[in-house]
């Protein structure tokens, strides 16, 4: 078929290949950046002990926090009354889970980061999941998650940092601001809820990890020790680490027809190929 008159199976396959190769190359660069972030985060912790400010966002109390596991302010969550911005949720509000149940909010955790230099520390910059990056309907608008806040896809949890492809999923800020506010939903159990139409995890309470939030003391007051227990994960979290991740990306770039070796690789290939179609 002549150019400009339609898309043949060959052209479609070519676009998928180009998109996948480009995404894999971008992901290699992104992986290197995230590796550098891990190193810089460790340096920030050490510097913090010595009173040195490396530009890491700080909580309301001025104490440097670890990387957030949350959704950015303004994210729409599906509730019994329709979609509600996460910062407007209150204890007792009913949110809809991927299982179709309506469960009451037990608490809303909050992280506040303030830019202390001309640039943000990479560990707190959100990952942007562009509109329709996951499929033809999901998410319904750009979704901003912290790098470790998992999406629920194909029955498993996958961190957005493992899906970065430099096009449809990448680190990005929604605007120019000196403050980043992240929020996290705590239910009685670990669940997956809908954020901008995309399934994402709620907070997994494990011991006293709620103390990582800026308002963690509030949770302790509401639920004293002995009145809360660690939660069972709703689903398995899959991911890569170190050399295994790098090798997987090289397989994607050079042998895209090789069957995926893990659920994460399967999802990454699918999303990366879709990114090529979105750009065409």
UniProtKB/TrEMBL annotation:
Segments forming domain Hedgehog/Intein (Hint): 70-204
Gene3D superfamilies per record: Hedgehog/Intein (Hint) domain
Cited InterPro entries: Hedgehog/Intein_dom, Hint_dom_sf, TAT_signal
PROSITE patterns registered for this protein in UniProt: TAT
Signal peptide (residue range): 1-35
Key words, A-Z: Plasmid, Signal
Protein name: Hedgehog/Intein (Hint) domain-containing protein
Species whose genome carries this gene: Sinorhizobium meliloti (strain SM11)
């Amino acid at each position: 078929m002549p150019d400009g008159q339609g898309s043949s199976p060959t052209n479609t396959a070519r676009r998928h290949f180009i998109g996948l190769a480009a995404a894999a190359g971008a992901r290699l660069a992104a992986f290197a950046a995230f590796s550098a972030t891990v190193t810089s985060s460790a340096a920030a912790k050490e510097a913090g002990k010595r009173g040195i400010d490396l530009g890491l966002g700080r909580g309301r109390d001025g104490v440097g926090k670890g990387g957030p596991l949350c959704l950015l302010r303004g994210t729409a969550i599906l509730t019994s009354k329709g979609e509600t911005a996460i910062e407007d949720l209150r204890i007792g509000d009913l949110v809809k889970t991927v299982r179709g149940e309506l469960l009451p909010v037990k608490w809303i955790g909050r992280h506040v980061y303030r830019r202390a230099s001309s640039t943000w520390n990479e560990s707190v910059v959100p990952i942007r999941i562009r509109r329709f990056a996951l499929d033809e309907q999901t998410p319904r608008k750009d979704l901003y998650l912290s790098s470790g806040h998992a999406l629920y896809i194909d029955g498993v949890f996958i961190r957005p940092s493992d899906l970065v492809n430099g096009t449809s999923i990448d680190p990005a800020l929604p605007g120019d601001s000196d403050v980043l506010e992240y929020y996290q939903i705590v239910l009685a159990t670990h669940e997956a809820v809908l954020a901008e139409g995309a399934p994402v995890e709620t907070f997994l309470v494990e011991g006293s990890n709620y103390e990582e939030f800026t308002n963690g003391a509030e949770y302790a007051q509401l639920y004293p020790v002995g009145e809360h227990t660690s939660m069972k994960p709703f689903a398995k979290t899959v991911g890569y680490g170190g050399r295994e991740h790098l090798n997987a990306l090289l397989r994607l770039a050079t042998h895209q027809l090789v069957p995926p070796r893990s659920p994460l690789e399967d999802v990454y290939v699918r999303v990366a190929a879709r990114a090529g179609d979105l750009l065409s």
